[in-house]
Amino acid sequence: MEGLAAYTRKIEAGLTAVDFPTSPNQLYDPLRYFLTIGGKRIRPILTLLGAQLFSASVDKAFPQAISIELFHNFTLIHDDIMDAAPLRRNQETVHVKWNNDIAILSGDVLLIKAYQELGKIDPAHLPEAFALFNKTAIEVCEGQQMDMDFEIAENVTIDQYIEMIRLKTSVLLGCALEIGAIVAEASKKDREALYNFGQHIGIAFQIQDDILDLYADPDKFGKQVGGDVIANKKTLLYLTALEKATLEQKEQLRQLENEQDLTLKVERTRQLFDQIGTKQICQERMSHHFDQAIHFLQLIDVSDSSKEPLQDLSEFLMQRDQ
Questions:
Q1: Could you write out the DSSP letters of every residue in 296-317?
Q2: Residue 222: what pLDDT?
């Protein structure tokens, strides 16, 4: 999408322009590094599109778009520490390149920078934007805690999993869109519909991630296919398989959790999922949330032509193969 590339370039330029002091360099160098190693920049683009939807200039919402991206990167730095992840976007994570203490402190600074950029808004809109941002920040932390709890929980339901990804991933997409709408002085009704559009797109996006992790083309995926299987993560694929499996298939799934040959583990798990029909069931759930998103988009009281950029972006995200 040419339009998406233009927005991405604008966001990248804005991130480069964020004013970090030169000293202490151990605090600020990690942030300069992390903000230049790439990313889809979908969330700040949504903020710009949320403003544009209601005929506001994208420049008017630009500081808030940068705020959303800074907050997102703050969560990534801290998530990488908790996950002991060595790589992010095929580059060393901050805690590996420096150390855990520096990564924690640098992440904290990035959160404060996010608030500084958020505050560059018409004072009349600051209370609503501030309340939404704070609510979202708390929910993202709740979602992360749920995700960590699921690692040791014996029983996780599909509904619990969907709620976890709603909090961990989707509410930030809804927030990004609604903050753009707040800047554009949209009605409360339209803002709520736009927020719900973002939530459902986020859920569909994460379900697609679960599917791609096991079924993506290895040459296009950019990371190890089957990583969730290797880590015994309770993804929607796994939980759906467990719900639909026969007793014999359930036992095979549990045995595969302890398989030491990782290539064999991924291959046999995929074969078992295919027997159960897991991928198709998850794709149907993904399509349901995509359809719900489009339903809420249709409720917004602007012209259909004004909605096209958001609809096009949604369809683009759902057609990705990596």
A1: HHHHSSS-HHHHHHHHHHHHHH
A2: 53
- Give tens-digit pLDDT for 25-51: 999 999 999 999 988 899 999 999 999
Cis omega before residue 44 (within 30°)?
no
Global pTM value: 0.94
**pLDDT score for 16:** 94
Measure the CA–CA gap between 257 and 231, rounded to whole angstroms: 9
Top CATH class of 1-139 equals mainly alpha
Contacts of 162 (CB under 8 A, 6+ apart): 203, 236
Domains 1-139 and 187-322 share a fold: yes
Q: Which two three-digit tokens encode residue 213? A: 């992790």
22 contacts 28 by C-beta, under 8 angstroms: yes
pLDDT tens for 249-286 read: 999 999 999 999 999 999 999 999 999 999 999 999 99
Q: Does domain 187-322 sit in CATH 1.10.600.10?
A: yes
Question: Could you give the CA distance from residue 71 to residue 76 in angstroms, rounded to a whole number?
Answer: 9
Q: Domain residue spans in the chain?
A: 1-139, 187-322
88's enclosing H/E stretch is: strand 87-88
Q: Which residues contact 197 (CB under 8 A, 6 or more apart)?
A: 174, 177, 293, 294, 296, 297, 300, 310
- Using the predicted structure, report yes or no on whether residue 321 has a pLDDT greater than 70: no
